[in-house]
Amino acid sequence: MKKKSQSPFDSFSALSLFLPSDLLDYFDLVNGVTQDTCFILYLEEKPVIPDEYSHLSLHSKGFFPEIEVQDFPIRGKAVYLRIKRRRWETPSTSQTYSRDWNLVATGTRITAEFGAFLKDLLRQSCS
User: Fold this and answer.
1) Alpha-carbon distances, residue 15 vs 24, 41, 84, 101, 124 (angstroms)
2) What are phi and psi of 80, to 5 degrees?
3) Which of 8, 14, 67, 96 has its CA at a distance of 20 to 30 angstroms from the CA of residue 56?
4) Which of 42-51, 92-101, 112-121 has the lowest mean pLDDT?
5) With left for phi above 0 and alpha for psi between -120 and 50, is residue 62 left, alpha or beta?
6) Of 4, 70, 6, which Cα lies nearest the Cα of 38?
C-alpha cells in the first residue's frame, strides 16, 4: 500500500484554521494572549504597498490607532483581534494613504467569512 505524502503542520497553517480566510494574506500575527475568558490576537498589516497605489512612491509611516474586532469564539472563549492598519505617505507631499478595504472586498474573490470580517473592519475604522 502506498503511503500518503504528508507535509509538516506549521503554526501558520494551524492559526489559519481559526481565523477568517485570507486574513493572514494581509496581516501578520505579532502577539497573542490567552486569558480565562478570551483569546486576544494582535495583528499588524503587512508592509506591502496596496495595489491601487503601486504607481506612487510610498513609504510606511507607522500605523493608524489600533481597532478591536470580535471574531467567533474558539473552545468557548471569546476571540478579539486587535488590528493595526498600516499608514503610507508620499515623501514629497506628505499625503497619507491606506489600503482601501472596499477594493479588497470587491476586487478579489473572497470567502463570505473574510467578507464579513472586512465589513466589521470598515465599520470599526469609520467610527
Assistant:
1) 9, 11, 18, 22, 23
2) -115, 130
3) 67
4) 112-121
5) left
6) 70
Helix (H, G, I), strand (E, B) or coil at 24: helix
Longest dimension (CA), the chain: 66
Q: Report how many domains make up the chain.
A: 1
Whether 101 is covered by a domain: the verdict is yes
- The C-alpha cell that represents 96 in the structure block: 497619507
Nearest-angstrom CA–CA distance, 58 and 108: 23
84 in any annotated domain: yes
Domain ranges, residue 28 = 21-126
For 22-76, how does the pLDDT look when each residue is reduced to its tens digit (9 = 90+)?
A: 788 888 989 888 899 998 989 999 999 988 888 999 999 999 888 888 888 888 8
- The total number of residues shown for the chain amounts to 127
Give domain status of residue 50, yes or no.
Answer: yes
The pLDDT of residue 7 is above 70: no
